[in-house]
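User: Quick sanity check before I run a bigger batch. Here is a single chain. Can you write out its predicted 3D structure?
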Amino acid sequence: MSYILFGRMSTSDFGFIVAPYEIPMPPARTDFVAIPGRDGSLDMTEASGYVRYGDRVIDLTLYAVGDYRQRLFEFTNLYHGQRYPITFDKDPDYVYYGRIDVNGITKHDGYCEISVTVTADAYKLDGVETTITVNGSGRANLVNGRMSLVPTVKTTAEATLSWTVGLDTHSVTVSAGQHVLPHLALATTFSFRKGWL
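Assistant: Done. Predicted structure follows.
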């Protein structure tokens, strides 16, 4: 049976049946400028250095059968208008963050149809956070997905971090707000979630 997780609760927790659905790709934000006297348009889509994307709009239909009033009441009061992490059974390794809109409820004899729209971020995130720990002097190779990101860095002591992006090398000294004790090994942890289209 198909399911969708809204936060920690599943559609099956409410006894809802999920109709077949699609998770669309986010639309690319294109920017074509017509210039008088020029053939065709000037493509400014990557003027910022890379392509930007719009929201993913995911339309869902849920069905509730039997005595559904209390379950429907709980679902709409928990989720309508709220932003949640959402996991789809069609893509269980990733989390989509989006705002949930209960568009309408159509009641029939013995069941009801619930129309839901999720306006989700362009990028889905890995279901688990990537964590890389470096003890003492060492090297960490951070491999990202398609989405640009800034990782969270935690250190147990003052540390100098150096990194290379392309041909450019950068360096910064960070402090954990603690004194440096020579007999303690330095532990640095990088945490991030990769985003994918």
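The chain has one helix and 16 strands.

User: Great, the batch can go ahead then.
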